[in-house]
Amino acid sequence: MDETMVLAEVSGSIATVGYGLAAIGPAIGVGIVVGKTIEGVARQPELAGRLQVLMWIGIAFTEALAFIGIATAFIFGF
């Protein structure tokens, strides 16, 4: 095998690794959002409905990062 073949093989795997790393951030973000919502409901149960709506909005924004990550992976070399 010559060096160009090995280099192409490594660069082909980097997009997959990059998306895997990009998915860690939204996963942590969703965990924090849900955890803080549960904490807020435990402190003030009368705000449960309002906090749940805000939680879903937060999850939607956080998951947008995962979609950007997968789009970037497709653009730059999946």
UniProtKB/TrEMBL annotation:
Pfam families: ATP-synt_C. Residues 16-76 form the V-ATPase proteolipid subunit C-like domain. It is a multi-pass membrane protein. The chain crosses the membrane at residues 12-34, 54-76. It is found in: Cell membrane; Membrane. The record marks 63 as: Reversibly protonated during proton transport. Its main location: membrane. Keywords: ATP synthesis, Cell membrane, CF(0), Hydrogen ion transport, Ion transport, Lipid-binding, Membrane, Transmembrane, Transmembrane helix, Transport. PANTHER family: ATP SYNTHASE LIPID-BINDING PROTEIN, MITOCHONDRIAL, ATPASE PROTEIN 9. Belongs to the ATPase C chain family. F(1)F(0) ATP synthase produces ATP from ADP in the presence of a proton or sodium gradient. F-type ATPases consist of two structural domains, F(1) containing the extramembraneous catalytic core and F(0) containing the membrane proton channel, linked together by a central stalk and a peripheral stalk. During catalysis, ATP synthesis in the catalytic domain of F(1) is coupled via a rotary mechanism of the central stalk subunits to proton translocation. Key component of the F(0) channel; it plays a direct role in translocation across the membrane. A homomeric c-ring of between 10-14 subunits forms the central stalk rotor element with the F(1) delta and epsilon subunits. This is ATP synthase subunit c.
